[in-house]
Specification:
Belongs to the uracil-DNA glycosylase (UDG) superfamily. Type 4 (UDGa) family. This protein has 223 residues and is α/β, with parallel strands linked by helices. Helices cover 43% and strands 14% of the residues. Helix 1 packs antiparallel against helix 5. The chain is globular.
Length: 223
Amino acid sequence: MSVRDAQAGLRTLSRATDACRECPIGQYATQSVFGEGPVRPVLMVVGEQPGDKEDLAGRPFVGPAGRLFDRAVAQLGWSREKLYVTNAVKHFKYEWRGKRRMHKTPGQREAEACHHWLESELELVRPHAIVALGAVAARSLLGRPVAVTRLRGRWLEDPAGRRVLVTLHPSALLRGDPAQRESAWEAWISDLSAAAPLFAPRKNEKKEKAREKSGHDEPAYAG
């Protein structure tokens, strides 16, 4: 499949997720929040679900957890523009507390209802490897319950043979003990740095750049 075909497929998929009502979450959310970034990336980063800010903006990882993720990306010397970021669940699940919409963890049934959207997204994006942020993302990708705190920082393999690096969701750091925040941050950076070798220049990098300039393999975005 060409890059342009993948781009068109992602746009179609995004519209379909917006109309999805396979679980009750969709009818209460503002909109679906689909992934964004280039196809054929080094990394596809999968979170749990959109938050309040993402639900309103229609973009992934733009709230407090997203800002923490951006900080990690900068510290690691990566570029968010070269990552494809998405969520296992495409709509925001929440409960009202006074006038505020508070995050509520998606249940297994809701994550399973969204799984075919994520799988279709993976087939179109075709990342070199995947990072699973948190237990919901890890379970959705790997097809089984995952003890994230025990397996964090390790590469696992999904049923299709794709490499998946498991770690905490950034929201876990935001909720953690303030006294332990610095050590939690360093541990999270250490987890993510397991993917750093993937960003090393590849032998065929010049060939790939030439293909991009010729229009055969230029970056494509879902949005």
